[in-house]
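Lecture 7 notes. Example A: sequence first, then its structure tokens.
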Amino acid sequence: MPVTLRIALRDWDYMTPLVLGDVSSPRLAIKVDRVGTLVNNLAKDDAHDAAEVSFSRYSQMRHDGDDSVVGMPNFIMRGFRHRCIITSKGSPIRALADLAGKKIGVTGWRDSGNIWTRAALRREGVGIEDARWYAGRLTEAHPITNRLEGFGRPGSIEAVPGERPMVDLLLDGGLDAVFTPFMPKSFFDRSSSLRRVLDDSRAAEVAYFRSVGYVPGMHLIGIKAAFVREYPWVMDELGELIDESRRLWLEKREKYADTTPWMIDELARCAADLPPFWNASGFEQNETMIADFAVELYEQKILPRLLSPAEVFPLYAMAR
């Protein structure tokens, strides 16, 4: 009988073959729970054995000596962040360097994606101390929560006054730009009053990749340590299943490309701009990216100590 693994994941397209059973294992029965938000604390969640987890929060656990969750260097959510900075359509801001001295909103201070976005700004000479930061909800539809999580600095990093939606503040001049991984409703409409800061974010992202050699990872797979102790082979098996699901998904996208009129062009451009291993899983394949993220956690004062990649993923480092 196969071992059952209950895993919580967002609706990433390339996981569809795994969810539908097109990719399977005689040793491991995957039960996917599709979630809209990440599991808050996998170690204390009775409903799941594994989950998609924040790279930042997992690194915090490793820093704190909490080994209740074992992270897999299989980055289920990756993406460039230059495209995630928006402003009003009439704003004069057209470059990342233009954000120096400006008021910038973020949807969560220690969110992994926002850490990478600030890293991109830092490469352009705009550090945390060079702007005024506000954490808040993107729109009226988003919940009011603690988005600073203890990382506020009076006069520098604060909550949005009165919890006003940041899109509203963009439009009335209360903010100059906002970092957001997911665009607000109607953002892509022709009549939208918002735009990305960079007119050609793709060119900036290709240049970024050629400089650093990776696509930043935001979320990874975490498994309860007790589950791994009982079934030490589970990480390799699950990793192979996820990789095969991604491979099969891409194969089908290249065949059934009519989901948008230009999907085939997008696939061709990705193949031209990025190497075939850009989303490879594994410790050695991602070690540079892991190390750079640890540097950002330290430089941005998310963590008080610089972690090594081996500290973040000790089992994989020992195996090597």
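Example B, a different protein, same format:
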Amino acid sequence: MTPGTRPPIDNRKDGRIDVVVHFGFAVLMVASGVRYVMRHSPADNLWTVALAAAVCVLYAATAVLARRGRSQKQWLPWMVALLAAWSALVVVAPSFAWCSFAIFFLSRSAFRGWPAYVAGGATAAATAVGLFRMSEWTDVAMLLGPLAAGALLTLIYDKIERDAALQRRLLAEVSRTQEQLAASERAAGVAAERGRVSREIHDTVTQGLASSLLMLEAAQRSWPQPSSLDELSKATGLLRRNLADTRSLVHELSAPGLETGPLAEALEHAARQYVPSVTVHVTGDPGRVPPEVRHALLRVTQSAAANIGLHAQAEHASVTLGYLPGAVTLDVFDDGRGFDPSAVPSPSEAGGYGLRAMRQRIEQLGGLLSVESTPGEGTIVAAQLPLPPASNQPYAAAKGTP
């Protein structure tokens, strides 16, 4: 928008105000014209009515330009002509003085800055002169009244404009803030989604490939002994399951048995992909577990079991699923060589994402995860997640069975 250009009127309330002002001007002009014609001779009526008609035409042209949001340079000739014609009309025929209010508001709409004050002042001065003349130059109130009213209207109009400008600035700031917030939320959503996909890939594809690689390397070392065939068979089976997990990851990152069926069986299936001898225990009364909690427990079990198969060299491993009032717990134990949790290296291209991914999964759902391990004394990965009140009832009761 170029400087000096007034934005087009697009607010319905502003449009209604303009309509009321223009309608009031038309009504007052007709009423004032009728009053003047009835009180003056035909000789006086002709020129005065012609001047009033010219004022009406100039007013309509200026109002149309205002409605279309034309620049101030385009307004200037029409507004100057209107003010000149109006000043002559109100001085010659003070009966038209009531129309000054519409002229004032139109001039303030047409101009910004000092031209607006000049136009408003000229309107008030012409009205004052006309009314003072009508009093035969004797009533000072007729002279000062329009000037005081013009000054008061100017102050009120300026206050309204300042408040409107402030409101527009505030709305613009709110809009910018909302856009920035939306951009931040989008960036946070992208980061969260990348983290989620990273954890899914780590807990399924990466762990499965790493375990398969160890089995293949063991088969290579024992080749051509019969045990190598067993290692190859295990690696093939794990790769097939890994392929199924990859396809599930592509299709909405779902997992077999996650949405339905007993949770303990799903955990056992996930753990035995990496530790075939693992045992699963359940304590407490099984209840319904929300899908997101089931998913987190399944992935934590997969990741912990994969670590046992890859690093622990354990003879025994177990998974314990516990149901508490308002919570569910998971403990993954092995009697392997253990490690120092404080000495775990930072994640890198070589690995190190497992514990961090498990902790993020649990904490995002409002739970807690702890890792207890000592070199040579095994490891316990313990997680606890809260359950909504509806999940506290036993699984059989939740299904509606007696």
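Note on Example B: The domain at 261-402 is CATH 3.30.565.10 (Heat Shock Protein 90). The mean pLDDT is 77.
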